[in-house]
Amino acid sequence: MATVTIGGDAFEAGASILHPKNYHASNYTDLLNLTGKIPSSSESSISLGIWDGNGFVVKTLNANSNWGIVNKIVSFFNGIYLFMRYGFSLVKMEGFVDETVNKFLKYYEGVETRPVFESVEEMLKWAGLFNLTGKSLKEELVDGVKLAPLLIKELVTVITRINYGQSANISGLAGAVSLAGSGGGLWAVEGGNWQMAAGTD
């Protein structure tokens, strides 16, 4: 949650977004009387563009209408376009992310059902996450989830590069976390997430 100052303006160097199921961060934000930030309309845009360095390989329709029905129609056609390009791989990727997040949620269980762990390996095995540490994200998505190579090349790699500056050959566990950080409902603390680390009760 460090910040860097460039040209007199402060920017977050890490942990700039939080997952909606990160209940520790949510509860801690409430404890410190901080306010969750709702994404602006540009951050919650229903459009998508993927640039390969020469041109857009993917470009969906854009809509910024005050009429909800218009946005719904555009979103519908964008969904059809993406399905035609990637098929059921988008659904499979979403299922993989949901499954991984649900495994992380096991750590929120009370001490009566969650053991005390003597090592990180033991902790990851208990939640069913350890196998992801022994392979790359690309290997898991190709061999395990059976995603289309085009989706991995065009979308998964974009997500891992934006979030961690890495390719899809990143560790399977880190890559799954990166994909989880691309979904809906992401939030931040108004004024910067650094306030959670700096806050005192």
Automatic annotation (TrEMBL):
A GO molecular function held by the record? prenylcysteine oxidase activity
Q: What InterPro entries would the database entry show?
A: Prenylcys_lyase, Prenylcysteine_Oxase1
Cited Pfam families: Prenylcys_lyase (PF07156)
Q: Which cofactor does it need?
A: FAD
Write out the GO biological process terms.
Answer: prenylated protein catabolic process; prenylcysteine catabolic process
Q: Where is the Prenylcysteine lyase domain?
A: 72-199
Record's keyword annotation contains Nucleotidyltransferase: no
Question: Which PANTHER family does UniProt cross-reference here?
Answer: FARNESYLCYSTEINE LYASE, PRENYLCYSTEINE LYASE DOMAIN-CONTAINING PROTEIN
Q: State the protein's name.
A: Prenylcysteine lyase domain-containing protein
Gene source species: Salix udensis
